[in-house]
Design a protein that fits this description.
108 residues, alpha+beta, 3-stranded antiparallel beta sheet, two-stranded antiparallel ribbon, 25% helix
Length: 108
């Protein structure tokens, strides 16, 4: 989990003021289980501490890994990422590892 003291509130606020994304992939990993979901509902909540709100389907048992891990990454997408967004939305029926294989990911 990101320590809120590591991010300057001014830097966070400036970044969020320029953020206009509507389609993102939210990802997490816990005990070797990776999960990623295409979403359109995410927004900044506060800059002290830097906080994001991400809306997920709480009724989907596959999303429990987000609650278990305690952290997530919000990955912004551009128009050229449509195939990736579709894969993480479940179109094509790819397994999680196959979805993640479609892109290069960095861990923080």
């Amino acid at each position: 989990m990101l320590n809120s003291q590591q991010m300057d509130p001014v830097v966070y606020r400036e970044a969020m003021s320029r953020y206009a994304g509507h389609v993102q992939i939210v990802t997490t990993e816990y005990e070797g289980v990776r999960r990623g979901v295409t979403i359109t509902a995410a927004c900044s909540v506060s800059d002290r501490p830097p906080s994001l709100l991400v809306c997920l389907n709480n009724g989907n048992p596959n999303n429990t890994v987000f609650f278990e891990s305690g952290y997530f990454a919000l990955n912004s997408l551009g128009a050229h990422h449509q195939a990736l967004a579709n894969a993480f939305a479940g179109f094509g029926g790819l397994a999680p590892d196959d979805r993640f294989a479609l892109a290069e990911w960095q861990r923080w």
